[in-house]
Prior knowledge:
Layout: H1 2-13, H2 18-31, H3 37-41, H4 45-51, H5 61-81, H6 84-89, E1 97-98, H7 112-123, H8 131-140, E2 144-145, H9 152-158
Parallel strand pairs: 1-2
Amino acid sequence: MRLFEMLILEGAQAGLSWITILRKRDGYRQAFDGFDVEKIARYTAPRVEKLLQNPAIVRNRRKVQSTVSNAKAFLSVRDEFGSFDRYIWSFVDGTPVVSRYRTLRDIPASTSQSDRMSRDLKSRGFRFVGSTICYAYMQSVGMVNDHLMHCYRYRELVSQ
């Protein structure tokens, strides 16, 4: 369920620093049943209210509720495409995009692919999936290699 976890964490990060979410990652895993998408899709209103009292996560009602609705949308996509993996990777034709950036300011906040992904996810009922969030998601799950060309990690990923 890593793809679901990363989608939820990227959405939770909206308007906050990434370090805030990293520090709360274990809290999210505990609060949201290890990101078990099938369990989360069955969460009730009382469960959401309980989550909103949990200091181990970001207690934003819209973000917590979107986790539940995104779980339902995730399952729907999985059923339609056979796997969420197959669906999400279709936005990059199944192959990681390898960028050739030299400086941090060269890295965009979004791309035409993340724009397309955002529109499609929203049309399927996902929330907290704007284009910038989608691009960060693409980076975090390896769909995009935006490491700077002089970074050791860039070379490692390109040679795989």
